[in-house]
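Notes from hallway chat w/ T.B., transcribed later so I don't forget. T.B. wanted the structure written out for a chain they're using in a teaching module, and asked if we could keep both sequence and structure tokens in one place. Agreed to drop them here.
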Amino acid sequence: MLGNFLKPGRRRELVRNVQRHYAVTKRHACRLFALVLVYLGAANRDRARWDAPELLDWAVARERHMAFGFGVHTCIGAPLARLEAEVAMSALLARFEHVDLGQERARRLPSGVLFGFRSLPLVFR
């Protein structure tokens, strides 16, 4: 039965039907007008894209991450934010040899959208 359906004429019909009712990307299909939740906290944590997304490794350049958007939606302040982060981290690392987690428990932000910390106790030595 599928053999007949997937003949060239039927294939075009199937593609037209999918395009009429679904938004399709390389890996996903979503019914048009469906409710979609965008969870920004999950950005840059795709194991298919990144080797170890849960690790912060300053030595690894992560191209095309979502932190500042991309394309026409790139954050206009991204170069300044990168420069500020570089200056701040360089100053910290020049002054302290070690940065460790403190004894107190880190507290996450109560958010279903963003990933971050309300407090992150650190010890600089």
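Follow-up for T.B.: Strands lie at 22-24, 29-31, 99-101, 107-108, 117-119, 122-124. Might be a good example for the class.
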